[in-house]
Design goal:
The chain is an alpha/beta fold. It has one domain: Rossmann fold, CATH 3.40.50.150. Helices cover 40% and strands 18% of the residues. Strands 3-2-1-4-5-7-6 form a seven-stranded mixed beta sheet, sandwiched between helices. Helix 6 links the parallel strand 1 and strand 2. Helix 2 packs across helix 6. It starts with a helix and ends with a strand.
Length: 281
């Protein structure tokens, strides 16, 4: 064999090997994939939740993040669609912690948390094993209460919530609470409305949009390492520039019937989907 060819072949092999070692596996677990298919087709899901699958891609997103039915997972500020999928998926072999908003934050938040608990109690065959915790503003010590088992979670998931913590000014504390809940090497999955990178990031994210690189830098500063990103929740129709922010789009329709046809045609927001792992400092 030509020596130069052998060296090139060896170099390509080494590079390929290193890349395969460094890249997280996204191959779906067959048992989890089968369970997800069954859950997504189940009648227990609300019509509103099922309608959002077109934009939220729950099967593909959870598989990308490596979620398995035997994991301990913390879902942060989970909406109905998220709980309807994760609770039955993890009920038999795993654990779901639902880190809801802090009911002490006000009457409206308290009513949403009460409604969430009522949803759980109404269907014990699905939700009886969900552990409800809270992610609220930092206490007087500057820290947040635990949102899950200290250093015991395989994954922490956040869907469209990062901008809220930025608005409130305690995004780093929220990320710290997520890190505290994770095992070493545990997965942090972040899905968020993606901002226009040509526009400097508003630190308060008043529009609801967060620039992807800004989010990556912030999250890595909090003790995580980005290992993969996915375009599964991308939407190129979203122009991102609206007077009332991302909330003019479905499912919120902040402007009511005004320009509803236009916003419906756009669909839900353009989202980035990022997979991080907890790293030791």
């Amino acid at each position: 064999m030509d020596l130069r060819f052998a060296r090139v072949a060896l170099g390509l092999f080494v590079v390929s090997f290193l890349v395969s070692c460094a890249s997280p596996s996204t191959r779906p677990d067959p048992a989890t994939a089968a369970a997800l298919n069954q859950i997504l087709a189940s009648k227990h899901r609300s019509a509103a939740s099922a309608a959002r699958d077109l934009y939220l891609h729950p099967r593909e997103t959870l598989q990308f993040l490596g979620i398995r039915r035997d994991m301990t997972v913390v879902a942060v500020w989970p909406e109905g669609w998220c709980t309807e999928i994760l609770a039955p998926l993890l009920r038999e072999k795993g654990v779901l912690y639902a880190a809801q908003k802090d009911p002490a934050a006000g009457a409206y938040i308290r009513s949403t948390v009460d409604a969430f608990r009522q949803k759980l109690s109404a269907s014990p065959d699905l939700y009886d094993k969900v552990v409800v915790t809270a992610l609220g503003p930092p206490g007087t010590n500057g820290k947040l209460a635990p949102i899950g088992p200290a250093g015991g979670a395989d994954a922490v998931l956040s869907f469209d919530s990062l901008h809220n913590w930025m608005m409130a000014g305690w995004e780093l504390q929220a990320l710290s609470a997520m890190r505290d809940a994770l095992k070493p090497g545990g997965v942090l999955g972040i899905v968020e409305h993606r901002g226009d990178p040509r526009v400097p990031q508003d630190p308060k994210a008043a529009s609801g949009y967060v620039n992807e690189q800004y989010a990556i830098d912030m999250i890595e500063k909090a003790g995580f390492k980005l290992v993969a990103r996915s375009e599964v929740n991308a939407n190129p129709r979203d122009t991102k520039h609206y007077d009332q922010g991302v909330w003019v789009l479905p499912p919120t329709y902040a402007l009511g019937d005004k320009d509803r046809t236009r916003y419906s045609a756009i669909g839900e927001s353009d989202r980035f989907t990022l997979k991080f792992v907890k790293v030791e400092r």
